[in-house]
Protein 1
Amino acid sequence: MRKGRLSGIGVGPGPAGYLPLAALDALRAADVIYLPRARGADMSVALQCLDGLAFDRGRLREIEFNMDPDRQVLQAHYAQLGRELAAQLRDGLHVAYLTIGDSLTYSTYGYVLAAVRDLYPDCDCVTYPGITSYAAAASALEWPLGVGKERTLILPCPEDAATLRAEIESHDIVVLMKVGARLPWVLELLREMDIARHCAFARRIGLEGEVLASDLTTLDAAQASGYLAVLLIRKTAQDKRHVPEDMKGQA
């Protein structure tokens, strides 16, 4: 009997064309394709990211993903999912697990992979690198994530403004993920620090309801808030190396 394989596939943050070719080959070769869907959502965002791509949709197995903050509930969820995947892998199936963005960047796949490894240490696992939301946002907005020796920090949004301010002050660029309902006070902080004009915001890149903003001075938090958002913070204006030093700052 053939040996099973687990393929972790990041489908990108939105546009279907962002799925790497190697990952697409693995997707098409899979016997079972796990498709996470957030509880309460009408449709899996991961499936929307695959719109227009040809593969056997009869192999899809949608699972409602539990985002409960209770760690015991999450533990039971991942344990059950790990047992299910491990059983299929032992049966020799090629199982693909889809996730939004990159498979191992703030992704549920990291927990799933750990659960499977504990139950089936000899499992053949292959993870395909995907495109992160902040890489897609930077490209869509033509916003460099780091040039020269700039220091870039990637982090989930802190719970308070003082902590975020300290992170901004100690780095050149901050990539802020998992902003959610904190967006109003984050925008207020950037305007208070007088750096909002250097910052950018993206939500639902390539999907319906897309929001792209390259200057956050007047961004309306009420209209921009929501899932699948990333904020790019630059402490100072980008250095223009093509401009002579004695001409910088001139209109």
Protein 2
Amino acid sequence: MEVDFELGAAGATVYVPGRSTRAAKSDLGRPETIEDTAEYVTAAGGTEIAVQCDHADAHQVRNLINRITAEQNGRLDILVNDVWGGDALVHWAPLWQHPLKDGLSLLHRAVDIHLIISHFALPLMTARRAGLVVEVTDGDEATNALFPDGYRGSPFFDLAKTSVIRLARIQAAELRKHGVAAVALTPGFLRSEAVLEHLGVTEHTWRDGIGKDPHFAYSETPTFLGRAVVTLATDPEVLSKTGQSLATWDLAEEYDFTDTDGSQPHWERCFRHTLAPQLDTIVGELTQDPVQ
């Protein structure tokens, strides 16, 4: 939602496709809806268009792109691929013990859907020889390399997150000659609605969650990610970054933007200095848990 909000605040027309509407929720059961997002962004000064769409359905995605083509005269400046929905499907278990159905479903949601969307959306960008694709992931190459053996402890989760980085690089290689940039972008410890609920806090009281998890002190709002996307999209030299895996904290320092409270959270510093030395133990404890 906050990525859309920041794009709207910058004056963009933003299409918000999704399954959760006020009339019907997705299987994730989240209370947020595409209509809520549309109102939020319109209030910020942008133009938000909510479209009910299941991104796993190629026919629905094709219809969405056809609608954008018709309504925007074929113009698509920014594509933010941020579909995930895999939290309940992650198991900290070896490949042979990980429930196969859950693992394959996770990959479908977190990787296949990104491919489906790009397949239909990219022709709009290549035709105009301009645009930016942002593949949102979890962890850049630098932080992922800090894990023992470079492995994040769950086979399908690891594949999902690293595959999105690779997908950005693949698209960059194919799109560069068309003047279109593609990057992978990771936030840090994200204060999403689900994380706030998990810690029993709100955005206004989020610091109360530090007592439950001291690393939460280094967290960032989704707005920080939105500002990173807007900054990249408005950089006339963004093509120089194509194919890279980027992080909100590095971009904040480079472009001098802040989170909502005026700070510049830097998750990598916390991760490198406090979590990385414990990763062998942390991953070991997680992978010893029985598969639920």
